[in-house]
Amino acid sequence: MGGGAIIIAFNYPLLEEKDRNFATIFFKTAIKLEENLYYYPKPNHYMEIDDFALFALKNKLTPENLKVESLYRKNLIQRDLRGKLHGILRREKHIEEKYINKKFFYESRKLFNLSWQWQEYRVAKEQLEYDLIERMQEWYPYPLGFNISIHNVCNLTCVMCPFFSEEFKVNHQTDFFKTKTFLEDKFVYEAIDYCAEASVSNPQLTVGFTAAGEATLDQRLPDFIHYARNKGIPWTYIVTNGTLLHKIGKELLDSGLNRMTISIDGATPETYRKIRGADLNKVEKGVRECVEYARELNAKGHKIEFDLNCVLTDTFCEAQEKELYLSKWEDCRDIIVRIFFTRLVIYDKQGNDINKDKTFSQRDMVCSFPWSNYAIDCYGNVTVCCTMDASSMYQPISIGNVKELGVRGVWNSEMAKKLRKEQLQQQFKRFSLCAGCAEKFKSCFDEDNCVTTKHNLDIK
């Protein structure tokens, strides 16, 4: 852009005088800078939000990429083609490779597709608290991801499981697992309806059907997935140990399931039996049957993909079995798109990971989960992370219960507000377990937007 031209835009509600003053200061600042400037209220810099509150565009405009994005927003091209076209257009402009291959868009994809270089507008703590607590509904009217844990039953007693292994069960201090409990249909369907509302403004919304145990033991699961797909929810997934896929796998895929994360800890039957006490051959047979069926459905226009997750324990010898593990699934990599090798996570009585990297957790970063995550357990309690989930075995803590407040009511409950305020101020009282939590630090970002995930030791 030449001649000192500038494009300015705002999606910031000007309801009070201080709002107008804030917007004025933003644009005055933008005029003085050479860089493009943007603002969106976020608890930390690394949270990805595909929107903007205010921006000022002065240089490096890419109108061709904007056209591609417009086609995608109108559902005229698919996501994969969108990404390829953006890359081609940027290469034609001889843009640096790190921008062409960029995977994380802290300024939002919308702005990145206008220009490839942006500077974030940093605000005072008081302004951030105002936007993220008092006006939270303006910026985060719905969670960005949902997890519905439908029961607390499992068919395995894996040696590393904090829920069902004999070693860890003796340390439980609550009755969470005392009786088999299934979240009532009423609340599951109410949660799905809420997710469907959220998906209208979030085309990448993901809804997971999981359990504090094994999700596929619930015969209602295909009906829940089918209902979610009919409500227009774009992405559904389950997490499973795979032991029942030979029975229910095809039915789940027919119901509209997009994604499965299958936990298989071991490359040989001997290792697998030591860790999970089950038959690896039967599990692998069920997974392969699902892979073949997924190929058939994808050929008809479906979009189905699987992940495999392997927890590294003393029983699983990484050096000896890792390559064998990978080679066994090499012929399935068109459907099995990611294989995770993760370290063992063990929680203490406060719900904290006892093996966390303590030096890494010294970083001063506000957790984004209270503004993004929503997880319902089988008793109706809502949490925002795995650390809070783990507290159910020791000192339960949540932001509310759907049976008391309704599914919609929990997201803006007084307890949810308290959690967000304690996070922003980094002064923890009611949510003391957040003070020592390392989960929010599990991704370490470098200057080139590369990510090293602390829990995922390797991804193939």
Automatic annotation (TrEMBL):
Pfam families: Radical_SAM (PF04055), SPASM (PF13186). InterPro entries: 4Fe4S-binding_SPASM_dom, AdoMet-like_SPASM_containing, Aldolase_TIM, Radical_SAM_PqqE_MftC-like, rSAM, rSAM_sf. It comes from the Bacteria. Residues 148-293 form the Radical SAM core domain. Its cofactor is [4Fe-4S] cluster. Keywords: 4Fe-4S, Iron, Iron-sulfur, Metal-binding, S-adenosyl-L-methionine. GO terms for molecular function: catalytic activity; iron-sulfur cluster binding; metal ion binding. Residues 367-437 form the 4Fe4S-binding SPASM domain. Coiled coil: none annotated. This is Radical SAM core domain-containing protein. It comes from Helicobacter canadensis MIT 98-5491. The lineage of its organism: Bacteria, Pseudomonadati, Campylobacterota, Epsilonproteobacteria, Campylobacterales.
